[in-house]
Amino acid sequence: MKHIVHTAYVTVELHRTINATPETLWRLHTDVNAWPSWNAGITKAVLRGPFTEGNAFDWDTPSLSISSTIAQVHPLRRTVWGGLAHGIQGVHIWTFQETEDGTRVTSQESWTGEPVEADPDGMGAALSESMHGWLDALKFTAERTYG
Fold it and tell me: What is the mean pLDDT of residues 118-139?
């Protein structure tokens, strides 16, 4: 689970350049319990232990309750987590790369499972909308609070 499933019915990759340091973005990104305070797309988030490989967190969106396990952590550079929710297996990769303009954040996610196979276009649109919202919220929070 350390890579996107390229054969998945739904795969989305998005980028944002954020006028903030990798340290600032990492702090926001790995403080799972605080996600609902700045990301309206997440209604609840609880990390079970520190943000380290093998630990899990439970989080809710308006349409899904998800339990994710952290598969990879490279501080200030990359995280990978994944889990199963309502028949959807997701793998989510985040990367952070410092640039002259701030930090380039890449968010990649793949979804597999029967619900995705039954409606790949609808599921792809939902995932894309969710990821755009998450990146927009991260950018807004980092630049407004720390920029």
Answer: 96
